[in-house]
Structures are given as C-alpha cells and as structure tokens.
User: Fold these one by one.
Assistant:
Number 1:
Amino acid sequence: MELQQVQNNLVIPEEQIITKSPNPFIEANTHEVSLSHLQNDCTIPVFSKDNECTLAHHEFIDAVDSCARTVFSGQRILKPELRVSHVIKGRIPEAIGKPVKELTEQDKTIYYERMMFKIEVPSISETINGNDLSLVIGGVRAYNQENLYSKKNYEKFKVFVGFKNMVCTNLCVSSDGMVEELRATSIEELKSKVLELLGTYEMQNHLNALKQLSEHYLTEKQFARFLGKCRMYNYLPKPEKREIPTLMLNDGQINSIAKGYYEDENFSRQQDGSINLWNVFNLLTEANKSSYIDSFLGRSLNAHELIQKLSFSMQNDSPFWYLN
C-alpha cells in the first residue's frame, strides 16, 4: 500500500510532502508541499457569477519563476519553496450523499486558501554582521482576499524581492522590493508587473540600509523602553496613534522578541545588555514567522520600516516615540 501522511486531517500522498525544514521561512499553521501537488492534486477555484477560473497558485509561481530567470539570467536559481495553509475540502459529484467515513481519496477535492513561496538566488549574496544573506524572490496568494462570489475581475497578488538571512531564514523586505497588492487579470499582465518590480528594485540601497543597522546599539534600558512602548501601541487612542509609526506585530510576537533578547542563539543581547539594531530587526522578523500567510509580508515590511526609522532617529539624535 502506498505510504501517506496526514496533516490537518488531510491525507496527502507521501511523495507530495516535503521534508519539514528545521527552520522554515514562515511557520504559523503552514506546511510545505511540492509544486506538482498544486498542479496535479488541487482543484482551481472559480468566480461563481461567470464560472471563470482564478489564476491558479502554480500559475502564479511559474510566472514569477519565469520573470526571475529572465531578470537574473546567468545566476544560480533554486526551485521554488512553497508553504500552504487553510485547506478547502470538497467532493466530486459522484460522492454526494456518501458518509464522510466512506469517502475514498478519489472522492475528495482540495485546494489551499493561502499560499506563499520563495525562490532563492544563492549566487547573489552578501554578509552583514557575520550573517550570510542571499537574494530571494517570492509571492503570496490568499483567496480569502478575493470576492469569489462575483464575476471575474482583477485578482490580487503580493510579490517581493529581498534577502534571506541564511542563519535563520528570516526574510528582509524593503518598500521598493514589495508590491502588497498587485492586481492582474491574466498571466501576461502579472508577468509584466513582476518584471517591473524586479527591474526597479534597488538592491544595493537595500543592502546599505541593512548594513548600517549593525553600527547602532540600544542599551538594555533603551531596549526595555522600546518593548514597553510596543506593548502600549495597540491601546493608544486613535488620534495619538496617527502621529506614531505603525506597529503591526501583536502582543504574542512582542513577547517572543523579549524572550529572544535573552535566549536567541544568534541575535540575543551582548554581555553588557546592549543589542545592535541588526539583531533587533532579526528578532522582529523571527517573531513574524508566527503570522498567517496573508499578513506575513505586510508585517515583514512594517518591521523593516520601523527599524529604519529607529536607526534614523539614533543617527540624527532626533525624537522617536518608541524610545522617548
């Protein structure tokens, strides 16, 4: 009998399950599957008013992979690594009325509401604060952000290009390396907009900004004040919030940052209690791994923007609410 593995009450053929990475780029409730599983074993949602197909997850991945190989031709480009969550289950018409316990695998249909992938380009790399980084391109698709009960219209995608910290697989994403809501109605339009993003990404500026983080240190008291203000942020009156840089991490993630300050093997405090901004940034991005797929990239970008504003404040000795 063919071996199978059960995840989230879903039986997936063993050859379609990827061995779990010891440190995946996103955790939450995701699991890793193969591209062929998306292509061959999953149904494709449709817009119910006109029965038009959505752009399938595997088509999205193929489009971005093609663009990456066009822009970075001559570089070593790895196969896409993808993670999925929120399985949507169904059954074929012939299985209508069958009790659940009598359903065979041939009776069942599935697709994943949320999917994230990354494509690594290890031949483009840099070292920051002793950590090796490599270029990554990727994207997010979340069907829960589409109105599938309407007619086919522009579909939403999230696409990014940035760097992966090889020590911890944390993703470093900047504002010019991400489109949080890319809209397209066809594969051709999608490719055109992905190529535009990759062509305008200022890689060296991004790396320079990341390198500067290791030059600035928070004392133990400053870090404690920063964390305390992060905890306070979500409870501020709305008029006050509007005047303060946004924080998208939740309380549980802030607790994880506090724990990492003491215990993280790569990014914890120094002996005198101080910690540089590169390590703080990586504590933020490490905590973000517990986010769901649909909020992951937004929080990644928010962490980058927040730490850059903190860095600017320290360089220019200017007021910053999170340290005041």
Number 2:
Amino acid sequence: MKNLFKSIALIAVFAILITSCSKKNDQPADQEVKTEQKDKVLAYIKNLGFTDAQIVDKGDRYVVDGDMVVDKNMEIPADNGMPKTEQYYNGYLVTNSNNILVKVDASITSMAAEINAAIAQWNAVPNSKIKFVLTTGSTYDILIKVDNTIGASVCGQAYLSTSNGKAGSVVWINQALIQGNSFAQRTRTITHEFGHTISFKHTNQSTTINVPGVGGTDALSLMNGGQCGSGATVLSAKDKLATAALYPL
C-alpha cells in the first residue's frame, strides 16, 4: 500500500490501444500477439499519467504505483483510458457485488480478526449492496494470502476488478512489514486492498475515472495511497458515498 495511487476512494479505467510498429520477421505469430498486447496495456497505463518508474513488470502482470495489479492480457476499455473529470474508479463494476466470496489462505489465518474487521467495514456501508462473504469452499472470487516479497515498503497489493464483472482475484498482504502496526492499521491495509478488488483506486490519484456525484479530494479517505501504517483506519464519508454511488441498493 505504501506507494498507492492518488484519487478518491474509487476506481479508474486503464486503456489506450496501440499497435506494435516493429516486429522481427522470424518472430512466432503467438509471440507477436503477446508482445502487441503487452505494449497496448503498457501504453494504456502510461496514458493515465503514470511514468516508467511507477510501473513494474512482474512477468504476466504489471504492478502500478506499488499495489495496483494489472494483467497484461486485460481487455482494453472502449474509452482507451482517457482521463475523466468527476471522481476516481477503474470503470469495471463487480456483477455479484452482493455476494463476493473471499477465501482466506492458510498463510494468513493468523490475521483472521483483521480480515473480519475489514469485511465488516465494507459490508456496513449505508445504501450499498456490497457484501463480502467468507468461504472455505473451493469456489471463491478473491483469495487473500501472505506475500512478504512484494516490496520492502509495499504493505499490500491487489488485482483490480475486471472487464468481465469479476472482483480482483487476489489480495497479497506483506505480513512481515505490517505486523508491527496497530490492529487498526493492519485492518486498514486489508480494507484498502479489498477496495481495489471492487474497482476503487487511490483517492489522491489525479488521473482516473471519477465516480459521478462524489468529487473533490478527501484527506480522510481510507483509499488514499502512500499511507500504510499512518492513514485513515475507517472508510470516510466520501468513501461510503462513492461505494453507494457505484453499488446502490
């Protein structure tokens, strides 16, 4: 979380189409497709205002500004990721928002209390149908797990919601980094990352898709980036308004 986006408790689309202008004649056709798709996604991220320094290549995905994870095979949104002027989210809403199944990996069962507290915050948002539900079954929407290798100053990472209406599939928590934080701050990390899975981006991010009717900055937003261990520990009034605006009852 410590290098998070900058925008309001919300989300924002990534997109810009670009074709590959130089390919080796002996390059396999399938590799050409993979390279072209990778270039499109990279260009799309940069079109939102992010620099090379903020984008890390992790093989089959990019990690942007510390904790936002984007698959290289993502579908490029129809509006090509052009910045809007309202409030921030990634443009992809979760279809089963009233029953998002979360599975707790064995690696993070010691943080069950923090996970429960984070889920309770999202589920209690007034006038919103968002509901995270814990499951132990083999079918789930989100897997939350420990990954202490995601970065020396990165408290957590998560996939954003996808173009097919699914929640971001994985949340990674750097337990080794946050274990010395207070219970409230550990819960904040998990709550923040869950926010990304349902399309919210960083409230203090400047180039993303805005949530209609919920504008302006919000120093109290739990979805502000770069505040792991020191930021707001509860969803702000605007965080809740934005959630209700995107996922109304």
Number 3:
Amino acid sequence: MAHEEDALEHERASWKPSPGLAVAVPDPVHNPGLPPHRERITDKDPAAMKRAVRTVYTLFYLSLAGSIWAIAAYMLFPIESGRIVDIRHNNLFIGLGIGLALLAIGIGAIHWSKAIMSDKEFIEPRHATRGRDTTREAAVQVFRDANEESGFGRRTAIRGSLIAALVASILPGITLFRGLAPHSSEANPIAGDPVALLSHTMWKKGERLAHDPSGRPIRAADLTLGSAVHVIPESLAELSHHDGYLEEKAKAIVLLMRLLPEQLPADQNKLEWSYNGIVAYSKVCTHVGCPVALYEQQTHHLLCPCHQSQFDVSRSAAVIFGPAARPLPQLPITVDDEGYLIAQSDFTEPVGPSFWERH
C-alpha cells in the first residue's frame, strides 16, 4: 500500500500539461480593503461630544425614572382592591414604566456606541494558540483597550447613570413578586397559607351548578351525551369584584361532562359522586394551575393547553400524560327535587397545583 501511494505521488509531481492544453489558473481574490474612514461630528467637535455624553446619561437616568415609576404604580394602583379600573391602571402604568426603563437603556447604549466610543476600524488576527501566558496577557490588554476606547473608566457620569439604570431596571420585577400571594392579617389569617386557601371553595352541600358566566342553573336532563359545560357555583353571581369574585371563581371553576354510565367503571370511579354518567372535575390543572378546558369526547380525555397534561375522565381524571402530579379533584354531585344538579359538598382535597405542601 505504501509503494502504491509513493508511485501515485511521484506521478502527480511529474505530470505536465500536453502542448496546446489550456490550464485555468484562478486569480487570487483582490482585497478591497477598508472604505475611507469618515470622522463623526463628535470626533471633530468637542461640543458635539459633550452633547452626546449628556444625551446618553440623560437616557440612563430616564430609565432609572421609569423603573421608579413602575414600582410607584404598583403601589398606587393595587390589584388587591379587586376593582377593574385599578387592575387596568396597574397593568398599564407598570408596563409603561418597565417599557420606558428598558427602552431608554437600549437607546442610550446604542447612542453611546455610535457617537462616543472609538470609531477606528482594526483587524484582529486569529490563531489556534490558546491558554498561554501571552494569550492571557493579550486578553487583559483587550479589556484595557476596550475600557480606554469606550471611555467607561473615564466618563463617570455615563458609568454611574448606566449602573443605576441597570440596577433599577430589575427592581420592578422583584417588586411584582409580592403580588404572587397575599399576606395574612387579623381579618384574614389564612391569606398567606396557600394550602388553606385552596382547601376550601364556594361549593357546599346543596349549591346548584350554574353555567359560566351567566349563572343559570343546570338541569341534568339538559345535558346531552358527550357534552362538556363550564360551571360555577350559582351563588358566585352574588359577589362583586370588590368582594373577591375573581379569586373565588378561580378556585371553584368546574368542567361538567356527560358519559354513558357504563363508560365509568365502578372499580376506577366514585360512582356515588356522579349522577347518571354526569361527572364534575376541577378545571384547575394540578401541574401549575392552568385552566383544563379541552375535552375530547371520543377518548374522554381532558387536555391542559399550557403543558399538555392529559386526564382520563372515565378513570377519575387520572393523569395519563404530561407533568401533572395527581388527578383533577372531583366535585361530588347529585340532583335536587327539581332536577337541578347540585353539589354534595365542597371538594374533598385542595384544588390547584401540587407543588404546595398539602396535608
């Protein structure tokens, strides 16, 4: 094999084109070089440079003001009041504050790079050598050069305003975490306990099941086979938004479905909690609390659109796919003397996500 390779290499080295045979030799690509450098107005006029510097740190301080306003809006328009106008103003003004904070930082950084930082082109040769002392020293020198060219170390007004704007820009997001769970108080001692909050809803013995959002009670005879109805407690309509309508509805929402009675095996279902094939399950996904609202009547599967958890209604809403950790809580139901569907009791376990520490 070695002799064959040597012979092939010798043949290639000794080959010459035959007389009259044209051989195309490509011309090397011409390097056009860099275009002529044009000085910026800030490079030629010191007054223009000062104006650019003032513009940049003004934008950074404007970003700082936007962050402060977002925090102030969170306090001025508390969503805990339950009033629609406060919720709208909360979303609007916090969004405007955060948007202004981020936009001003972005515009200021771009203007800084275009008008103030060094505008000279240079070529950076690259090679495969890495990790030597000379390489590390060169890297340190690059940072020194970048600091010198950008003026970050010299221009204290820009540096200080940028640091303040960046620090302040994260404060609105941190402030918003406060609204994830209400704080307990003497008037509402369980407000800070998610387990207690999710363990009880407006459902109680004799509470009629009603259409969402009309509040019209539901007769068992009106439900067709394969139907899925969004349900709320009938008494929910008596609450106003100020009295916690949205909070109570978020916990008590239910999906009502009708199957053939024989499609509910007795060994996998609590038949005493259903009525003639009609079952009711919490709409709050046991993964992170998204609304489970997609029902496939042929397979009797419920789908959560957020993270694709699937529950089998014919088997006590058992989890058959996805990240949900437990079945959907079932609402025990029956009918009253007038044929309306009513609850036998509240849910017997907490509704909602499973990551809370449940008793």
Number 4:
Amino acid sequence: MAAQDSRATEARPGPGAGPLALLRNAWRQLTSMRTALMLLFLLAVAAVPGSLLPQRAVALEKVGDYLRAHPDSGPWLDRFYLFDVYSSPWFAAIYLLLFTSLIGCILPRLRAQAESLLRPPPAAPSRLDRLPVSLSHPSSRSVQDVAAVLRRARFRVAVRDGAVSAEKGYLRETGNLLFHTALIVLLVGVALGSWYGWHGNRIVVEGPEGEFCNTLQQYDEYALGPRLGAEDLPPFCVRLDTFHAGYLDNGQPLSFSADVTYTENGPEKKKSLAVNSPLRLHGANVYLLGHGYAPVLEYTDRFGRRQTTTAVFLPQDGMLTSSGVAIFPDANLDPATGRRDPSQQLGFQGVYLPTVPDNVSDGSSKHPEERNPALMLVAYQGNLGVDNGIPRSVYSLDKAQIDAGRLKKLGEPHMLLKGGEPWKLADGSSIRFLGTKKWATVSVRNDPGEPVMLAGAVLLLLGLLPSLALRRRRVFVRVTDGVLTAGALAKNEYPGLAEELELLMEEK
C-alpha cells in the first residue's frame, strides 16, 4: 500500500504543470497547418463586409448617407466596426493570430528542411520488393553504373553497402515553405501600409484657383495611418492646368488625361497624367480618378455689386448630367450701411447638361461632351445657413432651411441658360452663365508596404510553381549476382512513379 501511495505521488503533476501543459497544447493547436488554413479562410470572410459596406477610410460621405438611410441597423453595424473593418479590433485579432500561426508553422519546418537538404539519402531497406513500386530483372550493370544514371537524372545519390540510395524532388518542400513565407511577407506589407500609409482625395478645378498643397486642410477626404501625423506629410503642390477627355459617338469614354504643374522643394515641373499613369513624387503618388464640369456664374446683386464663382457640379450619370449649387452668402451688402442682411442671401440649385437633348424635359444630357451645353437653375433667397457653424454639403442647399421657410424660391420655377445668357431675378438682381471649367478628382496616396507586398507576390509565385510541379520520391537499387532489384516510394501521390522507375532501370 505504501508503494502504491508513493507511485501515485510521483505521477501527480506538480504545481503549475497543468497550466503549462494547457499552454503547450494551445500553442500546438495554434501553430498547426489546419489552424493556419482556418484563420486564412476566416480572414477572407472577415474582409467581406469591407467590400459590401462603405468604409470611412475610403468614402466617409457614403458612410454618413448609409447611416441616415438606415437609422435602425446603421448604428448597430457601426458598433461592430463594420464601417471600419480593416482597422477593427476583431480584424486585427484574426490578422495577428494568422501571423503567429504561420510563423509557428514555418520555423520548425524550415529547420527540418535545412537538415534534410544537408543529409544524404537514407540507406536502402533490406527488402526492396516490399516498397510501393519495385522491379527485378537480370542486368549487366554495376552499382556505380546505376548511380551514374541516377545522377544524370538529377537525383541526389549515395552509395553504401553495395546499394544505391537516391532522392529527388526535395525542393517541393522548399517551394511549399517559400509559399507560406510569402504569405507572412504579404501580411507584413499590409501591416506597414496600414500603420504608415496615408491617402487624401481632392477635387481640383482647372486653373490657378484649383491649386492645392499637401496639407490635410486642403483635402476633401483623407486618412492617416496610426503611426503618422500631419507633420509627416511630404511637401509639394499640384495645379491642374488642363483636362482632356475623349468619347465615342455613343458617349462611351475613350481616354482621360490631365496636364499638371507641380512643385516639390524646387522649380515648377510639368507632367501629363492618365488613368494608369500617375504622378510619382517623393513620398506620394497622385492618381487621376473622376472628372466633371464646374459652371462659372456671375451674380450681380440689386446694388450692382458683382460676384463670380466656380461651382463644382457632380455627375449623376454616364453622360455627365451634373447637379450642384452656387451660393452667394455676401450678396446684397448695403453700400450705405455696410451691413449684410442674412435673409437676402442667394443660392442657386442647378443641373448642367453638356449636350441638351431634343426634349429638354428629359432632364439628362445626350452626350458627355459639351456639344450643346446649358445650365438649368432654380433660385432661392433667404438664410443659407452658412453662418450657424454647422457642417453642410457644398453640393446641395440645406433642406432644413428650405423646409423651415428660411429659404424660398425667387421668381420663376427654373430657367435654362446658355453660355453668356443672363437671368433677371424678381428682386432686381441677375445671374449670368459664363461657361464651364473642367475639374478632376485626384487621389494622393502613399503605401510603404507596396514594395514588400510586391516581393511577397513574387515569392508566392516562385514557391507555388515547385510545390505544384515537383514530386518528392526515393529510389533504392541493389545488384546481386547479375540481378538488379529496385524499389521506389513517393512522399505524396505520384501516379507516374512506376513508369519512371522502369525508364531509369532500363538497359541502354
């Protein structure tokens, strides 16, 4: 009984052995290839909401529109970071677990593969006829002759104890490891881009007034990586000189290009941009995205004071039917008192048609080129709501001001203006359509992870080819009393192993 109690005491785990065993098992599970594949699949599934729902880092305005259109479900989706998928805690957790799992999978296999590359093929077994593929026939060749044949076939060969051991296809595992290492490199590239990358979008109008410099205040929308600040942005300025667009007769786009002038701590330089030909600067690339028209309007108030504005109109269809607003908050300033009555501000809601259709009531352009341009305007007078400090869209009038009666239509319901035509309003003021300027949306981006991801993609292909094309197999041969006996086995399924062995052992 005492002996049994002693053995039970020796078998009982000591303090801390239980948690250590649990951690060891958890690490083994995490670093298994099955877990890595599951995490990779989970990461792909987790990225799906990022492609289905608008993301704040790319389209902040669309996120706001979605939240206003879905007041019930929108806040719940936002609570689970579905509008910030790629910066969410749960996406980062999957990402880090996958990163750890891949490293834990690869390191032991790298060591084993390095040892196998340096180690000669194992000794031949005693019974070659028990291998999956085997053959035996009379032969006049010696062991050295067989070894020479296998070397010419690019086998690693070792001759020991009168038998030949040969191995081929060991680079398959090297390709497999290279493939999985490339996945880690890709993850590192994504992490670098997420931490240190940034982007900003800006609508730029032709001419000097459309010039912008690389500061956050001059972007319509921007996003900085968590490891970057506004002071880390490289200094440069860009001006859109001219924009060129070509179309087929049916309105299908043919070509887009832009001539820009830029400065980068030096004299001005010129560059022509295209959709797939960005302006490459130090620390940033400038890409050409969308384009459209910006009507130029001259407003003369009832005191004879003139103001000119260039209003960006946003396209509503493929024919560049565009809508927007032009506001004059400083209109009707009384020259006698120098005071401005907020209730006398002017705003114009409009639709621009590059090519007016035969039936104007259709309300859409016939072609995206300016073949018969016209601007349809609706005038509003009253308080525009620009002085209350509340952010508002620059592409539409404040609907709340209209609904509250603080903005009212002035004069006729609408007026269709051609280039240079004036519109006399009921309060004695007038608006004149002077023409248009073209604008382009440029996206300024910097992703320091791009070179790393390119290297990872190249490694991925280099590793994938041998892992798919090669088959690891071993061949063992003995020659005894004029009888050649050979056997072979493959690490993975290899239907052509028997045919290959017969060709290698064939008398020549």
